[in-house]
Amino acid sequence: HLQEHTHKRNKMPKCPSCDKEVYFAERVSSLGKDWHRPCLKCEKCRKTLSAGSHAEHDGKPYCNNPCYSAMFGPKGAASTHLFLEL
Ligand SMILES: [Zn+2]
Ligand SMILES: [Zn+2]
């Protein structure tokens, strides 16, 4: 296991998606971060994701299918950064 006891300056974690505080009741943990449940969604198609059952690239969540396999799977590995220029 990775070390989990990093010091937190704020009690409330910030959602990496919207940068607002995440309250316990609406929190989902994925990719080692805490998200608002509705904020954990595919960067590309905006489909809501379930914690722990989605793909990740560059710290951002993606659905396994079709987005991650299309962009980063064997077929789409060469076009990694296309979508970042939105
Ligand atoms: Zn959020
Ligand atoms: Zn998607």
From TrEMBL:
PROSITE patterns: LIM_DOMAIN_1 (PS00478), LIM_DOMAIN_2 (PS50023). PANTHER family: CYSTEINE-RICH PROTEIN 1, CYSTEINE-RICH PROTEIN CRIP FAMILY MEMBER. Keywords: LIM domain, Metal-binding, Repeat, Zinc. InterPro entries: Znf_LIM (IPR001781). This is LIM zinc-binding domain-containing protein. Residues 13-74 form the LIM zinc-binding domain. It comes from the Eukaryota. SMART domains: LIM. Pfam families: LIM. One of its GO terms (molecular function) is metal ion binding.
